[in-house]
Design a protein that fits this description.
Number of helices: 7
Number of strands: 3
Structural class: mainly alpha
Helix content: 55-70%
Shape: rod-shaped
Strand content: 5-15%
Distance between the termini: 47 Å
Radius of gyration: 34 Å
Number of domains: 2
Length: about 180
């Protein structure tokens, strides 16, 4: 939306710029050389003769609008080049249990390593809700290892983390409590 409005504003500014500039008259043959040398002298001294301060403001606004358009085009190109950034993948809300009678909890336990099993078992023992600092003590893991395991679980949708003071309240997903 910003890109299209900037393009529209650029068109309006260009039309206004053409309408504001006075028509130039063609000077006689000797006058244009004097005019050229006079302008070159002004440019080399670092000044440009202008009588209209609005033209300087117009130039700044024109540069800003062109910059916004370029940024908008870059964002649009980036958006189409990397479509995986459009939406985040959704976590499964319900994982069905296997046909052989195994629960979802048992299925997940089979995919975990020993430390992850310890953390999940501590949560299961406390009815699926416990503070992270106590999980750490009962699982006999370091703070960092516990944090990393719980972060992976949260990313997979196995647990949800709720900040409580200086620790997290960890809640086991409903589909694992069956």
């Amino acid at each position: 939306m910003l890109l299209f409005s900037s393009i529209f504003l650029l068109v309006i500014l260009l039309v206004a710029g053409f309408l504001m500039t006075p028509p130039t008259s063609i000077p006689d043959e000797s006058g244009w050389i004097d005019n050229m040398w006079g302008c070159m002298g002004d440019w080399m001294s670092g000044s440009y003769p202008t009588n209209d301060p609005f033209l300087a403001t117009y130039g700044i606004v024109l540069i800003l609008v062109v910059g916004v358009i370029l940024l908008g085009l870059a964002g649009l190109i980036y958006y189409y080049l990397f479509p995986e950034l459009k939406s985040s993948p959704s976590m499964p809300q319900q994982i069905p249990s296997h046909q052989n009678g195994m629960s979802s909890y048992e299925s997940v336990l089979k995919t975990l390593n020993d430390d992850e099993r310890k953390v999940l078992n501590v949560l299961k023992e406390h009815n699926g809700k416990y503070l992270q600092k106590y999980i750490r003590h009962e699982a006999k893991l370091s703070r960092l290892k516990t944090h990393r395991i719980l972060a992976r679980f949260a990313q997979r949708g196995i647990v949800t983390l709720q900040k409580t003071g200086n620790t997290n309240e960890v809640t086991l997903a409903e589909w694992l409590l069956d």
